[in-house]
Specification:
single chain, 164 residues, alpha+beta, 6 helices, 10 strands, globular
Length: 164
């Protein structure tokens, strides 16, 4: 049985899960982890998002972006154009290159707390989306949900791998 969501061409897009530590280089290139890359081979909408005081980037395929936009517009009432302006300005479409890289704009990198020279991020796959976290923000969330010892282990793994 193939697990997945409907995708263009009748194929099933893979259900995403797991976390992956990767780096964003100084040019803003993020290599999508192989377990996540397939879902976005037709392109990815990268959207600035915020929840619970944390900032991260949502990576959505066209269907996910359409669903998010419809939900936002559906609850906007008379402010549909204002909501469209704000949401539209926080989202950008990218076509991954042959190596599975997408470009994160400078404002997107700054939004999740990455320095201009790039750095470590955590990419989390969940169902139909990926979430890109600046490593320090993810570590703070992980510390709050999993405890200090688990967070220290995660930080030690990053240092062992030489990710800044």
């Amino acid at each position: 049985m193939t697990h997945g969501f409907p995708a263009p061409g009748g194929r099933k897009a893979p259900v995403l899960s797991g976390r992956h530590r990767v780096t964003v280089d100084a040019r803003g290139r993020l290599v999508l982890p192989s377990g996540i890359r397939e879902r976005f081979r037709e392109g990815a909408y990268i959207v600035q998002a915020q929840e619970g005081g944390y900032r991260f980037l949502l990576v959505l395929d066209a269907e996910g972006w359409d669903a998010m936009a419809e939900e936002a517009l559906g609850s906007a009432g008379e402010n549909r154009n204002l909501v469209a302006t704000v949401l539209g300005s926080k989202a950008h479409f990218y076509q991954p290159d042959s190596q599975g890289r997408v470009f994160l704009r400078r404002d997107q990198r700054r939004y999740i707390g990455l320095p201009p020279e790039g750095g470590a991020v955590m990419v989390v796959g969940f169902r139909d989306r990926a979430l890109v976290w600046g490593f320090e923000s993810y570590l703070d969330l992980y510390r709050k949900t999993e405890g200090e010892e688990a967070a220290a282990e995660l930080e030690a793994e990053r240092e062992e791998e030489g990710l800044s």
